[in-house]
Amino acid sequence: MLKGKQKRFLRSKAHHLNPIFQVGKGGVNDNMIKQITEALEVRELIKVSVLQNCEEDRYTVSEQISSGAKAELVQVIGNTIVLYKESRENKQLVLPK
Length: 97
Hints:
This protein has 97 residues and is of the alpha+beta class. It has one domain: Translation Initiation Factor IF3. 37% of the residues lie in helices and 21% in strands. It contains three helices and four strands; from the N terminus they run H-E-H-E-H-E-E. The chain has helices at residues 4-14, 30-43, 58-68; strands at 21-23, 45-50, 72-77, 80-84. It has a four-stranded mixed sheet with strand order 1-2-4-3, sandwiched between helices. A hairpin with a 2-residue loop joins strand 3 (72-77) and strand 4. It is globular. The protein starts with a helix and ends in a 13-residue tail after the last strand.
């Protein structure tokens, strides 16, 4: 579980990132979860955009993705979800204590 200071740090790092995944009409599926997990292993911090035509609530989508990819939900802002997962192979971010 992330602490407040760590979430603030991650939000500041995520600010300049562009969403690399979009959740649309089809919602969240296993293939998307697999791709998000792989992207998190490489990048550690990603943004996912929830499109207008998505039939599910953005908070439901964020819950499905974070639990499916075993990632920490940093923030849901507007239609954008920020996720963090510590990388095993290529660790880049050092979180404050």
